[in-house]
UniProtKB/TrEMBL annotation:
Protein name as annotated: Aldose 1-epimerase
GO molecular function annotation: aldose 1-epimerase activity; carbohydrate binding
UniProt lineage: Bacteria, Pseudomonadati, Pseudomonadota, Alphaproteobacteria, Rhodobacterales
Organism: Meinhardsimonia xiamenensis
Similarity comment text for this entry: Belongs to the aldose epimerase family.
SUPFAM superfamilies the record matches: Galactose mutarotase-like
Gene3D superfamilies (UniProt xref): 2.70.98.10
Classification via InterPro entries: Aldose_1/G6P_1-epimerase, Gal_mutarotase_sf_dom, Galactose_mutarotase-like, GH-type_carb-bd
Keyword match Magnesium: no
Amino acid sequence: MMTSVPPTPGVAPFGSLPDGRAVEAVVIARGPMWARVLTLGAILHELRLEGVEHSPALGSPELGLYAGPLRYFGAIVGPVANRIGGACARIAGEEHHFPANEGGRTTLHGGPEGTHAQIWRVQSLDPSAVTLTLALPDGLGGFPGNRHVSARYALTEDGAMELTIEAESDAPTLLNFAHHGFWNLDGTPTIAGHRLRIAADRYLPVDEHLIPIDGPAPVADTPFDFRAGRVLDPAHDVRLDHNFCLAGERRDITRACELTGASGLCMAIDTTEPGLQVYDSARGPEPPLPGHDGRLLGRFCGLALEPQAWPDAPNHPGFPSICFGPGERYRQLSRFSFSRV
């Protein structure tokens, strides 16, 4: 039986942010799995599996924290996930400047008004799936185009969660979304003991500001080689906040990575995206903050596994393009499946 009794599927008030905006929670359920999604940032707030005493997707019962230190936990980040170097890029031949919300040097996850900070609208709901939509006006965060975005969370018959993100714009713009979930399969204070395998033979080296400094480099003979799988040891491992190059362009949905906890719970991620950003939460909350089930969220509390395009793409002509114009539709499909080993 489930250790957390699933609430009745549907929409309910969840609370108000410090600025007064109301947030709703949407519960979906199917068989041995249920999930709670917030209208703030289309956040996957909680995911529950039969026989598992904790939510593998990290989050907090305290809504106010999502307006501060937990702003990216479980959110859909965009319109451009990851970093834009120098907080500027050329779009259709014209230079655009964006808020430099990371150290005054880079634009991170679309800036302070990115999709993580917006209230999405519940467009459709059935017991096992919800679609949320968001309208981003022309010029918000410096990005051109009136953009319409949708995110659909669906629990499948075979016990997986599928996330489909779609978007379109009425003017040339940049689109690169990512689900910024933090995962801990053991319910332990840190990710130590988890085994990570990544289906990538190349990664992007970065500078001190985490901006790619060159084209893809081989992972062979480096600490970034996870092709055969490796147990994580945050106290001694190289810091991880890097893009792993799965492919040179979007493709049919394909295996990206597998994460296995010491408990034997395994999560596999398949995606259409050409990159997977992996972040070890080394800069996690200090002091730790309250999470689900009385657990604390601190440094190395979870592993962020973010299917997306490559970072700073518009400033690297050889990277997969994130430029979209009128009549073009952005679509990402990522699938999160769970098993026991």
